[in-house]
Amino acid sequence: MLLAQEAEDLILSLVQPLSLLKNSSGDRNTELVDLINANQRILATDVRGKVDFPYWDNSAMDGYAVRYQDVANCSKDQPQVLEIIEEIPAGYLPKKSLQAGQAARIFTGAMLPPNADTIVIQENTQREGNQVKILAAPQPKNFVRYQGSYYQAGEVMLPAGSLITAPDIAVLATAQCSKVPVYRRPKVAILSTGDELINPDAELQPGQIVDSNQYALASLMISYGATPISLGIVPDQLEILKDKISQAINQADIVLSTGGVSVGDYDYVDQILADLGGDIKIRSVAVKPGKPLTVATFKRPDNSSCLYFGIPGNPVSALVSCWRFVVPALKKFSGLAGDVKPSFVKAIAKNDLKSGGKRETYLWGQLQIVEGAYQFSLAGGGHNSANLINLAQTSGLAVLPIGTTAIKAGSEIMVMQV
Ligand code: AMP
Ligand code: MG
């Protein structure tokens, strides 16, 4: 049985990211999407702008564009009078260059006229017909946004592997990148095993249970950018299950099956994976919930591969296993640059926390920021891996390391953000 940390490292080492893979036709695993659809996608190439930003020297204020040398010494008592030769609103091309003793009326965002190097804000001026009195000496280069001062053409504006969010969309728009190269969405096949399972819209018969995992796992995968392939409920029958698993392996980058990985008489998953030529890397991890976790890799005839997670069926175990082990693998596969491991934060426990001490234990609840500090409140009700009801609104998993059996309310603990 591996420790959680060992399992995490091993799983991540099995993942070849999309950025390094070629698909069967030799293309990279990328697609072009419209700018507005690039949000939450992962950029597939470094984006470089063709032009500087600002695109040209422009004014940061409403006022007058001047030559600094003309106004360097003026003051309220000794104002400098300049001739106004032009008015330049934003969006217009200045037509005249400033000569000694001249100014141009200018507005925020407008292009500076040739020879101007400084803006005098209109509060420090007095207009008199086609002349303006400068009442205070500005700082040299004041309120000019110089061409290229924020960004120079050709530099990397946004690196490949970035998760694109609203500010990045602004940057891409500015670079006139209206079609954005992103990695394709990972395909994650999801199947639920168990004779007792029914769909949420079926009528519940004695002994049955609604397949909640299918929906919870698909939602989780969607929230990390994957396309779920829902393969539905598969009965605990060796041949049918084998067939479904084989289908899943053939069409997905990652397969998640829930149930059937314990040691019960109907737990066929590991046997099937071995029969289908899977290389089983992990069978169990010293965590609670989620101890039986099967991880296997498959090589397909076209040399592409598939990562298989056989996850316990209990709804809480299933989600905890996915948060802890599947999401990092998905993130790495998706081409995301940087750290893909879960985030653990220090928080104050609001409740006493208990664990058996033999396995790393994850207790679910709410992670909140209260007066600037993280607090963890344990979900009320039973902490049992079949109790999915009190899993609602979970935002953190408190971690009790192996050997720790109790934590007192008020103590500091590590909490995994989910
Ligand atoms: P298993 O891992 O197949 O032994 O299942 C463990 C427990 O989880 C059993 O009580 C199942 O009824 C329950 N379970 C299995 N699969 C699901 C599922 N897809 N949705 C909800 N509960 C499930
Ligand atoms: Mg089962």
Placed side by side, the strands forming the largest sheet appear as 7-4-6-5-9-8
Q: Span between N and C termini?
A: 24 Å
Helix content: 10-25%
Q: Tell me about the biggest sheet?
A: 6 strands, mixed
Q: Which strand-content bin applies to the residues?
A: 25-35%
Q: In total, how many domains does the architecture comprise? A: 4
Ligands: adenosine monophosphate, magnesium ion
Mean pLDDT: 96
- Tell me the Rg in angstroms: 31 Å
What is the β-strand count? 28
Structural class: alpha/beta
Low-confidence runs: none
Which fold name fills CATH's third level, the topology of the largest domain?
Molybdenum Cofactor Biosythetic Enzyme, Chain A
Features:
single chain; 418 residues; alpha/beta; Molybdopterin biosynthesis moeA protein, domain 3; 4 domains; six-stranded mixed sheet; 7 helices; 28 strands; 18% helix; binds adenosine monophosphate; binds magnesium ion
Outline the structure in words.
There is one protein chain. The model has no long low-confidence stretch (mean pLDDT 96). The protein folds into 4 domains: 4-29 and 184-333, 3-Layer(aba) Sandwich (Molybdenum Cofactor Biosythetic Enzyme, Chain A), CATH 3.40.980; 33-47 and 154-183, Molybdopterin biosynthesis moea protein, domain 2 (Alpha-Beta Complex), CATH 3.90.105; 58-145, Beta Complex (Molybdopterin biosynthesis moeA protein, domain 3), CATH 2.170.190.11; 344-417, MoeA, C-terminal, domain IV (Beta-clip, Beta Barrel), CATH 2.40.340. The longest helix has 19 residues, at 315-333. The protein is α/β, with parallel strands linked by helices and 418 residues long. Helix 4 packs parallel to helix 7 (315-333). 18% of the residues lie in helices and 32% in strands. The protein has helices spanning 4-14, 68-71, 166-174, 213-223, 238-251, 269-275, 315-333, and strands at 30-34, 47-48, 58-59, 63-66, 80-88, 102-106, 118-121, 125-128, 131-134, 144-145, 156-158, 179-183, 187-193, 197-198, 209-210, 227-234, 254-258, 279-284, 287-288, 292-299, 305-311, 344-349, 353-354, 360-370, 373-378, 396-400, 406-407, 412-417. The strands form 8 sheets. A 6-stranded mixed β-sheet has the order 7-4-6-5-9-8. The structure holds adenosine monophosphate and magnesium ion (MG).
